[in-house]
Amino acid sequence: MLKLIIFVIITDKLYNNRKIYYQKHMKQEIKNNKIRWIDIINPDKNIVSFLKQDFNICSSILKEYIPKIKRPKVEEYKDYLFIVIHFPIFNKKSRKTISTELDIILFENTLITSHSGSLPELKKIFEKCNSNAQTKNYYLKNNAIELIYKILDKLIDTRMPMLDHIDDHINNIEEGIFNGDERKMVTEIAIIKHDIISFRRTMKPQRMVLESLSRNIGKITSENFSRLSAEVIGSNIKVWNTLENHKEMLEALEHTNESLLSYKLNNTMKILTAFSVIMLPLSLIANVFGMNVTNGMPFESQPFGFWTVLFMMITVTSFSFIFFKFKKWL
Question: 140: alpha, beta or left, given left = phi > 0 and alpha = psi -120 to 50?
Fold first, then answer.
């Protein structure tokens, strides 16, 4: 009985460990006719062995397959292409845009996608293809090249809603600036500016990768994919132009905010300077008549001496104030 309990505990532990492993390192596959799509999440050494044995992938690719590749690229091999492309993902909690890498091995009829971390839109496409026959027939229709173009077009189009949060924040910043919250908006502008910089850093190399992909497609197929290629590049240009508009708008608001802050600061300094200048003769009069010397104060024997000095101070203050108003310094 004890042996049975121990066996059950060990088996359950092994099952849970295996379950955790497959959750972290997942390989999913969809087939439709002759077309095959394999999606790999968090590749490990087992995945590398699988690619080597089943597809005879070049060792130079396998060496850099697991670690992140910072440089997007398209490499041509005998009967397939190796593509590295990045997509920006916005994290609502940290309010930061991070770059997610997508590695692609493209044969004429087989597509292998690999990514570490989350690519929600790619996951949705895969799940829809897996559960819906109509969606599967749309994506996996003719060959893997058409499939990757449709996937890339979808992934790039889904960047547009991500730009909506930038647009919303820019509108809030504009409202805050003209409602007198210039100091608070300095931090908000810095956050959105960092977001745009991260987005631009990820999106800018995409067009180069897409154009290079279009030029190298002819190496693995004789079919013409210029229309699909133009659509994907057009989607990239649309996202980039929207991002550029947001960047220019934010820079204009930043300049306006700095101008308003400078104006308020200068106005404050002007008022403080005017008060300092007005108070200077009063301090001088008080010090002169407060000198501790014999007969130092001409009015010390008069009953209204204090009020006489006070009148002189008020007269000097009034004259200084009228002079500053006349010069429009106040």
Answer: beta
Which residue type is seen at 303? P
Rounded to the nearest angstrom, the gap between the alpha carbon of residue 78 and the centroid of all alpha carbons in its chain is 38
Q: Above 50 in pLDDT, residue 20?
A: no
Residue type present at position 54: D
Length of the chain: 330
Exposure string (b/e) for 138-174, b if CB count within 10 Å is 16 or more? ebbeebbbbbbbbbbbbbbbbbeebbeebeebbeebb
3-state secondary structure of 20: helix
Non-local (6+) Cβ contacts of 228 within 8 A are 146, 149, 150, 153
DSSP string, 58-89: -HHHHHTSSS---S-EEEE-SS-EEEEEEEEE
pLDDT digits over 265-302, tens only?
Answer: 887 787 777 777 777 777 777 776 665 555 555 655 66
Rounded to whole angstroms, how far apart are CA atoms 145 and 56?
Answer: 19
**Beta pairing partners, 39:** 28, 113
Angle, CA 254 vertex, CA 252 and CA 258 arms, to 5°: 120
Structural domains in the chain plus CATH codes: 26-262 (3.30.460.20), 290-326 (no CATH)
Task: Identify the helix (H) or strand (E) that includes residue 27.
Answer: strand 26-32
Average pLDDT (90-108) is 85
Both structure tokens of 185 = 């908006």
Spatial separation of the C-alpha atoms in residues 123 and 144, rounded to whole Å? 17
d(CA 189, CA 15): 50
Q: What is the DSSP letter of 217?
A: G
User: Which amino acid would we find at residue 131?
Assistant: S
